[in-house]
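Sequence in, structure out.
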Amino acid sequence: MDISRERTTTTTLPLGRYEVDPTRSTIRFRTRHLFGLGKVAGTFAVRSGSVEVAEPLSASRVTAEVDAASFHTGIAARDHTVRSATFLDVDRHPVITFVSERVDEDALSGRLTVRGTSGPVTLAVQEAVATPDGFRVVATTRLDRFELGVTGSRGMTGRFLDLTVEVECVRR
C-alpha cells in the first residue's frame, strides 16, 4: 500500500468519542481498466463509523462501515457488474468494514474486510483539522483488490485502487 504522499495540514485532535457523519464523508477511488489503457474514477458511501481519540494517540480506535452497493462510477453497466458476484458480491456482502489496529499522527493501520476476506491496510493521514463540532480527516492509500479476494476480470480491470478517504466526525 502506497502511503508516500506528504501531509498538508494537521491539528491536535481533542480527546473523546466521535461518530462519523455519513452525509459529510465519502471515499473516492481511481483505478484503470482495459488492460491499463483507460482511467476509472468513482465513489463509495460511508455508512457509519466511530472514532475514539485517546492519550496516547496509539490507544485510539477507529471503526468504519462502507456501503458496498454504493459503488458508483457514473456508468450503470459497470456499476452493476462491480456490485455483482464477480466483484463485490453486494447481495452476500453488503458492508465493507475497517477496524484499526494502530493509530499515529501520520498513519492509520488496520484490517479491511471485503467480500468476507480481510487484509491489512495503512492509510496515510494527509489532513486532520478540528471543526466546531469535531474534526475532519483526509487519508489516502493504495489497495490491491486481489489481496482482498476481489479477483474477477484479471487484466481487463485494474488490480490497484488509489483511495482518498474524507471523513467528518462529530462528538458523541
